[in-house]
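From the pipeline queue, job 12 of 40. The input is one protein chain; the requested action is below.

Action: predict structure.
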Amino acid sequence: MRNLMVELADRRYPIAIGQHLFDDHALMTRHIASRQVMIVTNEVVAPLYLAKVSAHYEDRQLEVIILPDGEAFKTMDSAMTVFDRLLQQKFSRTAHLIALGGGVIGDLAGFAAACYQRGIPFVQMPTTLLSQVDSSVGGKTAVNHPLGKNMMGAFYQPKAVIADMTTLSTLNDRELAAGLAEVIKYGLIRDLEFFEWLEAHMEALVARDPEALATAVERSCQNKAMVVALDERETGERATLNLGHTFGHALETGLGYGAVLHGEAVAIGTLLAADLSSRLGYLEVADIDRIRRLLIRANLPTTVPEGLSPEEFLEHMAVDKKNVEGQLRLILLKRIGEAHLPMSVERGLIKQTLVSAIALHRPQGSL
């Protein structure tokens, strides 16, 4: 087992990474002190891991909520399902909530924990690569709105993150690739050495080599933990973790939640951000090609799907939490391994990037 700590100004919490962690009774009960426990999961994860996880809490007042799977269900209605059960079963503010699933479940259950009685403890048990390397760490919780992704939420840190890497064996190839988009992001924004490691080991990651995956998860969590420790509430440096996300969120919202996976949208958004970085004089064309090649090797899409015009794309990008007083703020790249957050970017340049991308012939690798 590999152990990391997220060090915040006034508290800290552990990340445990390893094989068969859901079988470790001492670990699974260490951070769950309450006699009242609720597990929030979905209909895909529940048949695989719910029995194993819930067995550790059979001597408690245990409630289980199984939600439909998918980004389309990361809604206030789903959060209300959690609130309703917590109230019906008279759960107190000392109750503990467990988020067992991928990024949708982690975000939604964390949001419910942040809101219920002004905050109850929760533990992240991520079961996808994307959630293990990104969404389970750092305390961002949210639900979606039809007009924008993650627009209702809170910064609310978990008590612990338990990443059982055996769960990655049940991911389909598309979900695995979606997680690799977030892994690649860390190399691009702040860790050139890691990016080069990914270039050397991508085939091993795609083949699910356990040691390669463990290294990628650990290095990604180390990078995120360091950024979160410096900027917990995203007033500065933490925004760099959103490379590709403003473009990607616009894709998800515009095409309909679930039409593309979050990691797929981030991969496409990352290339759009790289193109825009080049137009501003930062990246060379060779850098963009290098990024594209790695994304393709990770089995990720690299071209914009049909369905959005440049104007519609820009309209959805305007509904983004990083924007300030109507100014689009995008995370760009000064170079591979170093992110840049300009005060604003001219809309005309952004539109040039979108027009160019949408006009491209869609070769192999497009959605």
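Job complete. The first helix runs from residue 25 to 30.
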